[in-house]
Amino acid sequence: MSSVITEIKPDNSKRKPNMWEASIPIIVMAVLLGGGYGYMQLPVEMLLIMASFVASLIALRLGYSWKDIEGAIIQAIAKGMPAQMIIIIVGVMIASWIASGTIPMLIDYGLRIVSPSFFLVTASLVCAIISLITGTPYGTAGTLGIAFMGIGHGLGIPLAPVAGAIVAGCYIGDKLSPFSAAANLASAAAKCYVMDVSQHMLWTTVPAFAISLVVYWVVGSQYAIMNSGADRILLIQKTLQGNFAYNGLLLLPPLIVFFLTFRRKPAVPVMLLSSSVAIILAMWFQGKGLASVMEYCVTGYKSATGIAVVDKLLSRGGLMNMMSITLITFCAFAFAGIIQKAGILDFILQKIMKFAKTPGKLIAAATASSLATGLLTGNAYLSVLMPGELFAPAFKLKGLAAKNLARVTGEAHIIVPIVPWAIAGVYMSGTLGVSTWEYAPWAVANYAGFIITLIYGWFGFKTAPLKREDETQPGS
Fold first, then answer.
1. Do residues 405 and 361 make contact, with C-beta atoms less than 8 angstroms apart?
2. Of residues 95, 104, 110, the one with CA closest to residue 241
3. Start-end of H helices in 101-180
């Protein structure tokens, strides 16, 4: 994903919010999502709309007109449209890959070679490698992630830790890959060289990922003892082999995605090309009619093997199934647009910044700001851009290299995939078929990274000093 999302500026001619005016929308959002969604399981779309309504009342009180509020909502949604386009096309790609036999074949072969003891470790490592190569957590989860979910299902491993391991692996590349939009935005906001940031971030990413792999190995060993699953695996394999014809050409759709993404080609055309090839393969090798495959791409693939475990596994994808994700993100962006326009988010970030008296506290404040932005807006890019721009002068004033700030926002922004109302959280949940609440505890690297960053900052470990004024050059 390669869109650049900039913040919605508040109007300086309007009155700025005071403490209680800035607090009310945040408190309401926390209560609605914590109690309404987390406890009562109410539809998150309506809760986000209610929170947006309260935020709009505060904006009206501050002197903004409904036209201003409406414009902020439209602007926020418009800035998220590139990401939405990718999400929608991923639905087409998933359905076409299943119809072609690509995903069934990958699941079958995976069941043959992957040991339950090392499955979680393998899934996370492979997703990390692919996301490093391509720079896209969405594409990695929507392709290999689904295949690994199927393999884990076949091995009898609970799907929550499988999804958590996949999400953790997918976001390694989002932090470190020079092809990642988030990594480049973090460097741009902090005004430093992207490769310096990637190298600096290894000091937090490697131990965080290592911790997660140890957890996955320990947990995987327990599941290997509890679940032999030989009969279940054999049933899935026989069902897949009986319903899909395998051929080496079925690897073309994923190879197209990985190769062209690595070559920095635009995501949407690449995925459409891959889906088109998969549609042709579905007609060629699986004997599907064009009308049937097109229907799958719209409504999702409908598996009818007669084996419940396989049908549940393969019945997914399609444009319509991705629209629910789009609806939630539109509602979240509405709230984000209003609190940005009304100056509420700026107010909160400025209050957090007053805490920063020492380098350790400055790093803690920047981390808290990035986390708060991600939680409030549900947007990973904003959680990189806004704190990056806000704290850049303060880091320079304290004699800290800008790559420290980029590392802070880079580590903190990956909390977003485990936020249920965030675009990344909704996408991962919808794609992998596991709720965010369920897989969040297992995405260990997503929260271990910023905790390690805080520890480093507090003790001054691997916190680089400022070397030169222009930090956009290599070696800063």
1. no
2. 104
3. 102-113, 116-134, 137-140, 146-155, 159-176
Secondary structure, 3-state, 191-227 = CCCHHHHHHHHHHHHHHHHHHHHHHHHHHHHHHHHHC
Name the band, by pLDDT with cuts 50, 70 and 90, for residue 5: very low
CA distance 358 to 362: 6
Neighbours of 109 (CB within 10 A): 15
- And the tokens for 320? 């319509």
Q: Which positions ≥6 away from 304 have C-beta within 8 Å?
A: 311
- Token look-up 């600096």 returns 200
**CA–CA gap between residue 284 and residue 417 (Å, rounded):** 37
pLDDT at 2: 39
Is there a contact between 382 and 346 (Cβ–Cβ < 8 Å)? no
Residue 182 CA to residue 412 CA, distance in Å, equals 11
CB of 411 within 8 A of CB of 175?
Answer: yes
pLDDT band at residue 62, thresholds of 50, 70 and 90? very high
Give the separation between CA 16 and CA 62, rounded to whole angstroms. Answer: 7
C-alpha gyration radius of the chain: 23
3-state secondary structure at position 465: strand
Examine the pLDDT at 1 and tell me if it is beyond 50: no
The residue among 212, 215, 218, 220 whose CA lies nearest residue 446 is 212
Measured in whole angstroms, the distance separating CA 366 from the mean position of its chain's CA atoms is: 21
* Mean pLDDT computed over every residue of the chain: 84
Upper half-sphere CA count for residue 246 (Cβ side, 13 Å): 13
